[in-house]
Amino acid sequence: MLSWHKIEPPKFLFAGNNTHRIPRKGLQEYGPYDGGTKINLHIIAPQRHRRYTMDIINGVKERLEDLFSTDVELVDELYLGKEEMQRRQYQRVIINRVLEWRRENRRAKLLFQVIPWRDTKPGGYYWALRKVSLSRYDGVPALPVQTITVDRLREYHRYYGKKKAEGIVENLAIAFYAKVGLRPWILVGNISENYESAIYVGYDISYREDIGQRGMGGVVVFDSRGQVIDYFECEIQVEKGDRISDASFRAFLDIIIYSAEASKIRPQLIVFHRDGDYYYDEVQKISRYMEQWGYDYVILSFPKRRGGFPLLKRMGYKTKLVESGYYAELGWQLAKDGKWYKTYGLQSLGSDVPIGVPPNILRFRLIKQKTRKIRAREMLRDTARQVFWLTRLNYATKLGYAKLPITVHYSHKLANVKRNNIALAEFDKIKHNKPIWMI
Description:
The protein is of the alpha/beta class. About 30% of the residues lie in helices and about 30% in strands.
């Protein structure tokens, strides 16, 4: 019988330093934390879906005005005569127009892309456009992209006037607002109960034999309130005998510490969130360097195979889904390195989430921790709270409810940028210095 424990959800800060626990209600009552703006919108879509595209844009405009005090100006449109074409042909058609949009002297620019189907393969429309809009080019800022499929356009049209259609445009409204670099809300207080100063490191590194077992991926560093400190790509060399190069891994850890120090943060605790299992001797190297430098640390992994059975509870004669924030120990589970680790389940999406969002159990493994003044049981509850609260800062989901913590979500997105051979350009900085959520 599993023993479940409850974590209270965080409070969020909105315009005028007003607080609320529910993101949508906070936006309705107070407006977004970073205030209103004007979004300069560009569109690339198939010609045959032009009417559906404009219908959904008009719906998003209404939600942006209502919830975000934000206007949308449609600057330019590029409608493609052929709905389906090869990547190279697609890039040839769009490249000059997209580079022209990037050079325009406008703030808060966004490119809305409509594609025939969900296609995130390296040769697909999704990455073909991002190769042009996000890559370094002539010193101009990257142009963030929001992508939607034709099926989603049709779904909005089919359910127009109903809750499902409203959910689609609300989701897009928050994505539009965040993609131009603005924050709808932030946390009221610290993520950790026990540490005033902590940093959270999300990283996703994959090792490939075809490039000499070199590890490639992305790293994102967040402060004690879940705000981005820095993000960067990384490469880690593996030597003979499957041992990670000391020099390359030390450089990887050094840049994490330097990014915190550059922001005048002296962390008492460093928490590592790895997307997937640890490889080779990563854990040993992290532990050794953290202890040499005198930091408390926690090392977690988030298995790539997500999900599990959601938690239910009996209420009289009925069985109901419990709300988000419950966690339990699931027992010892075998990881890819051949070792057994205690694994925990957190109900990151429960009965309190908006209608239409399926429930989710998020699994994470406690690989190692060293917290000198905090007892293990107390630290476990704090660790679960950190994971849960970090799921509530993902602006790319339905009003803040997400399956994964932002550490894992954004490091995975950044790693995909690296894997698709995109040298990321700088983004336009409107309110925040490092708006990773614009990727």
